[in-house]
Specification:
alpha/beta, six-stranded parallel β-sheet, five-stranded antiparallel β-sheet, elongated
C-alpha cells in the first residue's frame, strides 16, 4: 500500500483519488472549496478543506510522508505553481502536477515538479488514434514512435498457433498478451492457438500496427 496526497478535487482529482483507493492505497484529498469537500466526504473519509497555497496548510498535512503528491488543479495555474513549489520546499518526495500544455509544463518543472501530466491531451491523442484506424480498440503510448495497441486477431489466424505465424519477422510487432472478453493471457505461449473473439495486445510502431490491423 502506498500513500497519496491529491490536491484539487475536480473531475480529474476525484477520479484519480477513487482509483487509488480502489487499488488499496491510502489517499488524503484536499480542496479549497468547502462545499465540495462536504459533498464528497462520504466517498473520501480522509478529505480536508484548505487553501494549499498557504504553506501552513500543507505543513500540517506532513507532505514529506506521502509517496506521491498530486497537484490536480486545472483552472488556476498560478495556484498550481505555488502549491508545487511549496510542496518541494516542504520536502515532498515526488510531486506530479497537472498542466494544460507545454508552456505550463515548463514552468512547473522549473519550480520543482518531478513529473507533469496532460490528462486532456493524452485522452485526446488516444481517442484520435483509436478512431483514426479501423480495428484499434485501445492504445498506450510509450515513446513518440512506439505504443501498445489492442487489436482483433486476424480472421486468417484463427485456429493457428502463434509459433506458426512468424509475427515478429513478418509484421515487425511483438505480441505481449491475448485478451478474450474479460480474460487476459499475459505472455502467451508460442503454442497458443487463436480462437474466435481473441484480441491481441501488441507493441510496435503506429505504422506497423496499423498495417497489421488493416489486414483481412
Amino acid at each position: 500500500m502506498k500513500s497519496f496526497l491529491v490536491i484539487g478535487m475536480g473531475s480529474f482529482g476525484r477520479h484519480l483519488a477513487e482509483k487509488m483507493i480502489e487499488l488499496g492505497n491510502s489517499v488524503i484529498a484536499v480542496d479549497k472549496n468547502q462545499s465540495l469537500i462536504e459533498e464528497i466526504a462520504d466517498r473520501f473519509p480522509d478529505s480536508y478543506y484548505g487553501d494549499c497555497t498557504n504553506p501552513a496548510v500543507l505543513g500540517n498535512l506532513g507532505v514529506n510522508n506521502f509517496d506521491v503528491c498530486f497537484v490536480a488543479i486545472g483552472e488556476d495555474f498560478f495556484a498550481s505553481l505555488e502549491i508545487t513549489s511549496i510542496l518541494k520546499e516542504l520536502g515532498a518526495r515526488y510531486v506530479v502536477s497537472k498542466a494544460k500544455g507545454e508552456r505550463q509544463s515548463k514552468f512547473l518543472r522549473k519550480i520543482g515538479a518531478d513529473e507533469v501530466i496532460y490528462p486532456e491531451k493524452e485522452i485526446a491523442e488516444r481517442l484520435a488514434v483509436r478512431f483514426n484506424a479501423d480495428n484499434i480498440f485501445d492504445n498506450y503510448q510509450l515513446t513518440d514512435e512506439y505504443s501498445i495497441y489492442e487489436i482483433p486477431v486476424l480472421p486468417k489466424w484463427i485456429n493457428k498457433a502463434i509459433e506458426t505465424l512468424d509475427v515478429r519477422n513478418k509484421y515487425n510487432v511483438n505480441i505481449i498478451a491475448i485478451k478474450n472478453e474479460n480474460y487476459l493471457n499475459p505472455n502467451p505461449s508460442p503454442k497458443y492457438v487463436f480462437k474466435e473473439g481473441d484480441h491481441i495486445i501488441v507493441i510496435g510502431s503506429s505504422k506497423n500496427v496499423f498495417t497489421l490491423a488493416g489486414k483481412k
